[in-house]
Amino acid sequence: MTEKVEITVNGEPTTADVEPRLLLAHYLRDVVGLKATNIGCDTTSCGACTVLLDGESVKSCTVLAVQADQQSVTTMEGLSPDPERLHPVAAAFRAEHGLQCGFCTPGMVMATVGLLSENPSPTEREVREGLEGNLCRCTGYHNIVRAVLAAAGRDPQEAEDKPAELAAPGFSTGSSE
Hints:
Blueprint: E1 3-9, E2 12-18, H1 24-31, E3 50-53, E4 56-59, E5 72-74, H2 88-95, H3 105-118, H4 124-130, H5 142-151
Parallel strand pairs: 1-5
Antiparallel strand pairs: 1-2, 3-4, 3-5
Helix pairs in contact: 2-5
């Protein structure tokens, strides 16, 4: 048994017959062919699959494709119409070295876009709390926080030499203490 879904992905209408249990992450990767939405866990633990669903940041491994029917999804590929010009958030991640292997980067960038749409000028604490559900196995998050502050038009130096108590639970300070 399949169900027909119509989902606007990065401004383009898509239509497919899908199994009711198909996750949005798999729809984006396997049906639409967009590979920036990474699947890291299938359990909502890592955030590598974060996309915007009708403008709201969601982990696409928690949403069925049928639940996204008649809605709009934005993926990393859809942030900038010109591949030569990075979206300001992606540019800030690059400038502040907020990535290493790059696996988590699309999810981090999409979560940041969602965070900044809700809070255009977050504090360091708000950045750490806002990205708490997105994991990076390579970094200490320090440069990711710097990148988000820079994307918000804040001085990334604000993330320098902050005491550990400013870190949200479960979100590394990047310090060795």
